[in-house]
Amino acid sequence: MYVFKLDAKNKTPLSKRNIVKELNWLTDKRVIGLFVNFLVNNGNTGLTISSWPDEENRQTSDIDAIAGSFAIEHSSVDTVQDQRRDSAWFLEVVKPLEEEFFHKLPFRLNLILPYEGIQRGQKWPKITSALLSWIRDESPKLAFGSHEVRSTPGIPFTFHVIKKRSDRPGLILGRFAPDIQGLSSRLRKQLDRKAVKLSRYKSEGKITILLVESNDIALMDDSKMWESLKQAYPNGLPDGVDQVWYADSSIPENILFTEMTRAFIR
User: Fold this and answer.
1) When you count CB atoms within 10 A of the terminal residue's CB, does the N or C end of the chain come out lower?
2) What is the Cα–Cα distance from 107 to 100, expressed in whole angstroms?
């Protein structure tokens, strides 16, 4: 389940939405720059980015960065297909609920929506309005415990509710975790395209690095990325790639870089 929280006693919510807002400044270039700083602090003294080939080469698609002997290509990965798009849709619908009910509920209320509940073609403001009305008018009447809420006017899906007594009342909004089958095949298709761009630089003597980023705090971690890469490439590293690194940007102010190259060794 994806979760982000509004806590009536804590003005700094543990919020998935807050993390997404911070990602607005976390561009690909910034992640690459932080990665190069990481390399500097781990034995590559004096390393700096000398060029951004994909910005400078207007004729063809190119890699992202050159830093000393390293050629770096960045790729952001969705754990679930269209994950970033679907998350943006979800957040657009629930954002007003956060704002409306902060400090206003005398109990702890968990609302858990189906992962694919928010779809293109729906009237999202009407869904938001219907959820807001339900929380305001119906949740106070609801018995404490777990409930399935069905056939609510204006809400085109069933959602799950957990109501608790708590000394930390507030609204918690989330989605059920989706099926992540097919990640390895999607990962291979995406990274193969990136590897093609690195091949030229490998032939020129550069150390080629594929930097794979995920900001998914709920469904991805080091072990899952390792296993997904291992399944995606059962015969070893893709042609043209010397190293693969994982950038965990789920906490934007503390990005973690982990080398994954050994996941490909057979």
Assistant:
1) C
2) 15
Closest by CA position to 130, among listed 110, 156, 148: 156
**To which residue do tokens 């779809």 refer?**
119
- Please tell us whether the domain made up of 26-80+181-264 is placed in CATH 3.30.420: no
Domain ranges of the chain: 26-80+181-264, 82-175
The torsion of the CA quartet 173, 87, 246, 187, rounded to 10 degrees, works out to: 130
| Token pair recorded at residue 42 | 């781990």
Question: How are the residues of the chain apportioned to helix, strand and coil, as percentages rounded to the nearest 5?
Answer: 40, 25, 40
> Which residues 6+ apart lie within 8 Å of 96 measured at CB?
128, 132
User: Which tens digit of pLDDT belongs to each residue from 177-190?
Assistant: 666 678 889 899 99
Q: What is the pTM of this model?
A: 0.65
Rounded-to-integer distance, Cα 27 and Cα 62, Å? 17
Which stretches of the chain score pLDDT less than 50? 1-23
CA 90/CA 114 separation, integer angstroms: 10
| pLDDT tens profile 23-34 | 456 899 999 999
pLDDT at 21: 43
The tokens describing 3, both together, are 């979760």
CA distance 95 to 100: 9
pLDDT digits (tens, 9 = 90+) for 33-62: 999 999 999 999 999 999 999 999 878 899
